[in-house]
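--- STAGE predict ---
source: upstream dedup step, 1 unique chain passed
mode: sequence only
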Amino acid sequence: MTMEKVCRRLFLFSALASIVALGVISLFLVLNSLPAFQKVGIRAILTGTVWQPSSQLFGILPMIMGSLYVTLGALLIGGPLGLFGAIFLAFFCPKKIYPLFKQMINLMAGIPSIVYGFFGLVVLVPLIQPANGSGKGIITASLLLGIMILPTVITVAEDALQAVPKSYYEGSTALGATHERTIFRVMLPAAKSGIFAAIVLGLGRAIGETMAVMMVAGNQAIFPHSLFSGVRTLTTNIVLEMGYAAGLHRQMLIATAVVLFLIILVLNFGLGRLKERGINDGSR
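--- STAGE serialize ---
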């Protein structure tokens, strides 16, 4: 057997391993959540506004909205900051300090989420307390998640910007465009596919985060009435109650995971369609 065939089979095995893992996880979630969907009802689960397992009330709509609010807030904060950080590293950062900045960003990516949560609890919560008594709520969780997704957005977006051929930049400046105009009018549009991927990865990190959000979000299973309201996300709802849940309660927590899985799938699909539409419009 030639080395080429060995490599092909190795790559095929690696790809199949990911598909099999996804299939096993999906099968586990579906089989264990199906009884809950049958007993409670999909409509009652998705539109219910009260979560009281002791009273057999399993409405997760407040947690769905809490997850979406916190994730949207994190993207509004971390998305622009991450993009501007990537632009700085790719086009403005002096070569002497570039390794230092790059190493710091890589270090941020390796910090455990519980450490981020402790930072939010000790630093961010006291900063928000003058506007809100507890200091825990949507705005605090969004700020913290916005910081947490920065390494992902910066790294992927910078790689996309660096992958744009240098001839694009040289051609634009040769025609008289300034450095800044070339970056924002030529380099950024050329790298929009990779930048979009950075935003999608940041979204996945934000909506799936658990421990850090649990420490600063307030964990109240209610509809938020302001940016300072305490919320409970789908992930924190599972973590908080899985330790003692049993029977239908446990099945409902797994059903919550299925809903979260579907939300992420729909968001990724929707963003992918927007990306394709943007690429097609740009090619016309």
